[in-house]
Specification:
With about 170 residues, the protein is α/β, with parallel strands linked by helices. About 40% of the residues lie in helices and about 15% in strands. It has six helices and five strands; from the N terminus they run E-H-H-H-E-H-E-E-E-H-H. The strands form two sheets. It has a three-stranded parallel sheet. It has a two-stranded antiparallel sheet with strand order 4-5. Helix 4 links the parallel strand 2 and strand 3. Helix 1 crosses helix 2 and helix 2 packs across helix 3. The longest helix has 18 residues. The radius of gyration is 18 Å and the shape is elongated.
Length: about 170
């Protein structure tokens, strides 16, 4: 039951290559609900529209761009209306423009659906624009946590080095 409260957007989108976009997005509804085919179709189309995708139902993952794959994965994650969505490197491999568009989409769907988003990313400081709270990990421990403004204002040398992307400083590459 606890797992049913979670949705996932995997780094590589985790789409089934042998399934169409429609089938990929519909999969959780077919596996976890008893909705009719018409209800599933309507919910899948709505979810795809919510992430800015139309007329891609019959395409296969290898026919999609990286950004489109991420949006299909997000549509699938939203379908069961989870309380929490875990985002694993949601913008890896995307160009800066699409990366910003994905950040905006995460923020918009968060506001529309009301889920808690947990985002794992190395994209500091750009992630500060969409997060209300940040925890920075270093060597397996939380180095600092707080609002984006608190993190930006930190005097901690490890935090400063990571935010500024500096090579010199306390961070050691092992």
């Amino acid at each position: 039951r606890v797992r049913e409260r979670f949705g996932f957007l995997f780094q590589n989108s985790a789409l089934f290559d042998s399934m169409t976009v429609f089938e990929n997005v519909a999969f959780p509804l077919q596996e976890k609900t008893r909705l009719s085919k018409d209800e599933i179709r309507d919910r899948v189309r709505r979810a795809l529209e919510d992430v800015g995708l139309r007329d891609v139902d019959d395409k296969y993952p290898d026919q999609l761009s990286g950004g489109m794959k991420k949006r299909v994965g997000l549509a699938r994650a939203l379908l069961l209306k989870p309380d929490i969505i875990l985002f694993d490197e949601p913008t890896t491999g995307l160009d800066p423009i699409i990366c910003n568009a994905m950040h905006r989409l995460i923020k918009e769907t968060h506001q529309r659906y009301g889920f808690t988003a947990v985002i794992v990313t190395h994209e500091v400081p750009s992630i500060f624009d969409i997060c209300g709270y940040v925890a920075m990990l270093y060597r397996g421990r939380i180095q600092m946590r707080g609002t984006p403004d608190e993190i930006r204002a930190s005097e901690d040398p490890v935090v400063r080095q990571f935010i500024n992307g500096e090579l010199e400083g306390p961070l050691k590459f092992v």
